[in-house]
Amino acid sequence: MYLTIEQHIIQQQRKFPDSTGDLSDLLYDIALAGKMISKEVNHAGLADILGATGSINVQAEEVQKLDLFANSLFLQIFEKSGRVCTFGSEEDEKCVCFEPDQVPGKYAVNLDPLDGSSNIDVNLAIGSIFSIHKKISAGIKGTEQDCLQKGSKQVAAGYLIYGSSTMLVYTTGQGVFGFTLDQGIGEFLLSHEQMTFPDRCTIYSINESNFNFWDRATQEYVQYVKSVDSPTGRPFNARYVGSLVADFHRNLIKGGIFLYPSDHKDPKKKSGKLRLLFEASPLALIAEQAGGHASTGTEAILDIQPSILHQRVPLIIGNKDEVLRYEGFVKKYRG
Length: 335
Ligand code: AHG
Ligand code: MN
Ligand code: MN
Hints:
- Helices cover 30% and strands 25% of the residues.
- It has eight helices and 17 strands.
- The site of one manganese (II) ion (MN) has 4 residues, from strand 5.
């Protein structure tokens, strides 16, 4: 008999006798949103929800309808729950600070509501990424300060992946657990207990069309993993979906390294493309909890103090040995 996500979260909560249960309830809220988004994703073609809305998000990228659907769904759920003080989203320029009547929400949530949006209309795996911090600001209302915290301060993080099946993967710092949605009964069931990266890393994931715009360290590292000098004695396999969640999830299960370094093709990508608070930080906590590592090439992702909500960072994440090896290339070629 599989454990449902509710049963599992209650079991975890019992390890902390002082817990009020709010974090557990917030995780259920996210699981509920995940089920609703999963249903929408599966009906995307039928419901005519595919395609761009024509509007542009704060990152100046085209917004797909499902992004908007997911963003407003999370917002509504958090607003009603009373558990969230501040909500930062990749889709919104500013965070939403909730002002409760009496008791402040205990947690700040940072979210990439729909990751991999360019893959929506080609029926490839997409996801949602979430990061949860404790409220640190004074007063009843949440502030942006609650969202601008180091990754190492996260109390929970995870992602939903809408792929050949829908999964929710999360950590509260007690290891990484994966649940698969049983569509028939509408429940997430524990399918992957204590997930860890396999010892052997055989995959590299990077958008290699940027090769000529990378610095020497990244070029040399990629040439290395493609050669017979690689740690496996044969070239790593290249796998790149273009949905961070999907690329990360595959590498977590099969053993791999994902890289989105900075490049000099696009001035916007001078400090990388991916967002620290909505993408890098939550996946970094999952990676570390699964025995892996996440780095900019020079610094652990979890140690970065964010200065702005939409901060971008280079992200190198996956099997620890490989991420550390990349850092070695950076030291050698960047000095
Ligand atoms: P989002 O859909 O949330 O904007 O994220 C897209 C991101 C990420 O999912 C993926 O790893 C990366 O963009 C792919 O970028 P390239 O197309 O430049 O390779
Ligand atoms: Mn994303
Ligand atoms: Mn997104």
